[in-house]
Design brief:
- This protein is mostly helical.
- It has two domains: about 180 residues, no CATH class; about 240 residues, no CATH class.
- The relative contact order is 0.10.
């Protein structure tokens, strides 16, 4: 009986976490969309390209100051104040050191990209590293306790405040400084929000023993995080070195839309995947079931979302941000194909982290980076589009490597993976193909966008209903249960008043 209750409690917490993760991720991407439209209309591809060149440096620096300890804190079975406190002070020290190094290297960065303005811009932008370090420990607290509602409110508030300031600055003519300010201010606000909800305070009595104990696990997570950052931003660096800022800006814009879409799914799953999978590591069969269900849920959302964005990319870009961004459309369509598989990586990655296999996680990522670099550099003479296609192909195919190691780890077989993923991928492709050809005669761009979105969604959901997809039924059941729960609460309150 106790085991059944535990299963039900975990199921409820997972469902609640996924619900708030989806709400948070959906809200974040909607706000990013609105803010991004304003900024893209106010700024040029060249101005976006300037800030895009610095993205990899600030992201790697954030990886270094976090050093994998956020993930390590979530994995600890019985945690104490000193675990959080030691990580907090370690992160602060590392972030200040990194900022000083980057401050001194700013002229070299500017020289590498042939952009003198990057010296002062980078010195300001990199301040976000220190503010990000402040929030690592309280964020781990929120993740451990599956407080996704609080995380959602914090993230949304940070985006609204930083985005609003950026738009006002862009309107006042601050150019790329508005984008840099948005990034720094976002880290400030989100760290404040995390402390507000955890009510945690660091103390000056510091013992770094927990950091030493976590290091054997966390350094592999750190290396992997850096490599993942390189993987996600390698094209920006290469384009920044080989092509004009405008080409970097077009790719940055395309990648931004692609990231907004796939992060809607990725963030929904990522916020609950590791803590939930960590709780079932003692039962291999149960973890395999939980992993498979998470993978199906991810595929259920990712394939229609990303393939759908690919067919409406021309209408979205031209209507939202104008024809000055027209060269980003084919880049976005290619990125959407690989973007459909990116959320699936998150589920596999969290499986290995939950098992403490940060070394496997690290080596798989190293192999992926090496394959991407070889493929992309081999195509550099063929131009930007060829390099983006090579990047997308490797990202799709490398998922097979993660699957092979997952089968060794928990016995999740290749044929099981195909049964879990292929139906969603095939149905999404068919729905999008039908939608694309049926709507070809429509000439009005706004009407075409609306009809394609509605028709594609209707076809996909109809197919899921006809096939009795369990994931769809679970989603509907959860939504209805929340509605019934709220109704019961209202009825109870009315009874009490009577």
């Amino acid at each position: 009986m106790s085991g059944e209750n535990d299963n039900q409690t975990l199921k409820q917490k997972t469902a609640q976490g996924l619900f708030w993760g989806l709400l948070s991720s959906g809200g974040m991407q909607l706000l990013n969309l609105i803010i991004g439209i304003f900024l893209a209309r106010l700024l040029s591809p060249g101005e976006y390209g300037i800030v895009g060149m610095l993205a990899i440096f600030s992201l790697i620096a954030v990886n270094l100051q976090e050093s994998g300890f956020g993930v390590a804190l979530v994995n600890i079975k019985e945690i104490k104040h000193n675990d959080y406190n030691s990580v907090f002070w370690f992160n602060i020290g590392v972030s200040i050191l990194l900022y000083l190094i980057l401050f001194l290297c700013a002229p070299l960065i500017a020289a590498f990209f042939h952009q003198p303005c990057l010296t002062s811009l980078s010195r300001f932008l990199f301040l976000g590293i220190i503010f990000a370090a402040l929030g690592v420990s309280p964020n781990a607290m929120l993740v451990r306790s599956l407080k996704m509602k609080e995380k959602a409110i914090t993230s949304l508030s940070a985006l609204v405040i930083s985005g609003s300031v950026a738009v006002v600055m862009a309107m006042k003519g601050f150019s790329y400084w508005s984008l840099a300010t948005q990034q720094v201010l976002y880290n400030v606000v989100i760290s404040i929000g995390r402390y507000y909800y955890t009510r945690w305070c660091p103390t000056f009595k510091v013992n770094f023993t927990p950091v030493k104990q976590m290091f054997s696990f966390s350094y592999k997570v750190l290396i992997t995080a850096i490599l993942t950052t390189i993987n996600n931003n390698v094209l920006t660096v290469i384009f920044g070195r080989l092509f004009p800022a405008q080409a970097v800006g077009n790719f940055t814009q395309a990648n931004k839309w692609n990231t907004m879409a796939n992060q809607l799914v990725t963030n929904t799953v990522a916020q609950v995947a590791q803590p939930v999978l960590t709780r079932v590591t003692d039962d291999n069969e149960r973890q395999r079931r939980v992993f498979g269900k998470m993978l199906r849920f991810t595929a259920f959302l990712a394939f229609p979302a990303m393939f759908g964005l690919a067919i409406v990319a021309p209408q979205v870009i031209l209507l939202a941000i104008g024809d000055k961004w027209i060269n980003s459309i084919p880049l976005l369509q290619v990125l959407c194909i690989s973007g459909a598989f990116i959320p699936l990586y998150t589920v596999y990655q969290n499986l290995f982290l939950s098992q403490g296999k940060s070394d496997t996680y690290m080596w798989l990522t190293i192999g992926q980076i090496a394959a991407i670099l070889i493929a992309v550099l081999a195509c550099h003479r063929l131009g930007v589009m060829a390099m983006v296609i090579a990047f997308a192909c490797i990202n799709v195919l490398w998922l097979l490597m993660w699957q092979w190691f997952a089968s060794k780890l928990i016995g999740y077989r290749f044929m099981t993976m195909l049964r879990d993923l292929l139906p969603f991928m095939v149905i999404a492709l068919i729905a999008m193909a039908i939608t694309y050809y049926v709507t070809q005669p429509i000439s009005n761009m706004a009407l075409l966008l609306l009809v394609r979105v509605l028709l594609a969604a209707a076809l996909y959901i109809m197919a899921m209903k006809l096939l009795h997809a369990k994931i769809l039924e679970d989603c509907i059941e959860f939504i209805l249960s929340r509605k019934n729960k709220k109704t019961n609460i209202i009825n109870d309150q009315e009874d009490n008043e009577r």
